[in-house]
Amino acid sequence: MEEKKEGTVILRKDVQQKIEELKEADILVGIPSFNNAKTIGHVVRAVQAGLTKYFPDHKSVLVNSDGGSKDGTMDVVKNTSIDLDSILLQHRVGSFHKIVTPYQGIPGKGSAFRTIFEIARELNVKACAVVDADLRSITPEWIELLVRPVLEADYDYVAPYYHRHKYDGTITNSIVYPITRALYGKRIRQPIGGDFGFSGKLASFYLTKDVWDTDVARYGIDIWMTTTAVANGFRICQAFLGAKIHDPKDPGADLSAMLHQVVNTIVSLMEEYEEVWRKVKGSEAVPTFGFVYTVGLEPINVNLDGMLDKFRLGVKELGRLYESILPGELMWFLGSLAEKPKEDFHFPDSVWAEIIYSFAVASHKKLMSPGHIIKSLTPLYLGKVASFVIETWESTADEVEHRLEQMCLAFEQEKEYLIDRWFEEEQE
To answer: What is the pLDDT of residues 164-192, one digit of tens each?
Structure first.
């Protein structure tokens, strides 16, 4: 009997049979899904068109890893295909296959990815990509841009770079991008973008990590993939994909579960890679593939008053807890900010960086349960987003990007504050 490989998930019998039939493949594109019947057909067509048009000489596989959809998502994937004549192909040497399977493990995107990584390893693929099932702006070109740097330029990880509405992706903009850039020194603009390219070698490396019963299996997978690739010295680039238009999320809506799981993953990765980020100073750009152009974007509705109310309530009700996490001057600042009217509400970047770093340190030192610490960050995050919205209400997309650059620089400048507090026991 064959020994089970490290990191292996047990694949269903029908999937194992399909793998045996295929033997090997060059390219694999994964689509994790859960109740995405309305949007996934478009994504499948774009993937098939991209593979057939740009990689006609390669054997490719689309894998749909589903979390138990009840709306017929898997049937849509099985039954969707494109009319090859519609993309004007002269010759078709390669072949396109599908594997559609439910995944096992904790409900969440990470568990879906684990199945995709496993199939990639079994098929010994050279290049992989994963794309979200709710994308409305995906085109066949996305597949080329995510796969070609791996296949032809020897990159191991291709992060997405797209234009989004200025109030879409607020967790990325206000926390994940600034802290990841400051910690690891690479300007990866969308470290939790959801659509990535990666090498077969990196997929196998991911499977050696024992994280599949943690928050990584839920919302933490994207930041885990990005950080693991950077911290372990894999070759990184990003690809400009145009607009990201997907099922929209109001930044003031309840994103606390996502915020908690992503930040929790960031902090656990800080523990694992502290000797890596401790030595990094400043940041550098990463190579970008694709032609960068301006795109039209759908507006995002923002409930500014709701965010301000939640911030003020949080400062009032969680004051005792914050006192155990934040130094006195930061507590004083929060108290005074909570009293200010909307027109005077301003949350400086340097203060925000110190707050995020203080929460990371509190979690590292286990001042209380990490879950309690990170969950209590939500009202402060909403306060920072509200301040950002007030400042940039009249700003263009380019001006907002410049404003985010200033925030990132504040995180880089305050990194000494993090290092002093994180490693203070060693220095005594």
So the answer is: 777 778 899 999 999 999 999 999 999 99
Range with the poorest average pLDDT among 78-82, 247-251, 321-325, 343-347: 247-251
Q: What residues contact residue 292 under an 8 Å CB cut-off, 6+ apart?
A: 161, 240
Q: Where are the alpha helices (DSSP H) in 123-246?
A: 140-153, 170-171, 177-184, 200-207, 221-231
Residue 381 pLDDT exceeds 90: yes
Q: Give percent helix, percent strand, percent coil of the chain, each to the nearest 5.
A: 55, 10, 35
The DSSP secondary-structure symbol of 173 reads I
**pLDDT at residue 247 above 80?**
no
Q: Identify whether the C-beta of residue 242 lies closer than 8 Å to the C-beta of residue 372.
A: no
- Nearest CA-CA partner of 208 in 117, 108, 111: 117
Domain ranges of the chain: 13-289, 304-427
CATH number of the domain located at residue range(s) 13-289 in this protein: 3.90.550.10
DSSP for 100-113? EEE--SSSSHHHHH
Tell me how far apart the alpha carbons of residues 412 and 139 are, in angstroms, rounded to a whole number.
Answer: 35
Confidence category of residue 340, pLDDT binned at 50, 70, 90: very high
Q: How far apart are CA 146 and CA 155, in angstroms?
A: 10
The full DSSP string for 184-216 is: H-EE-S-TT-S-EEEEHHHHHHHHTS--TTSGG
Helix or strand or coil: residue 27?
strand
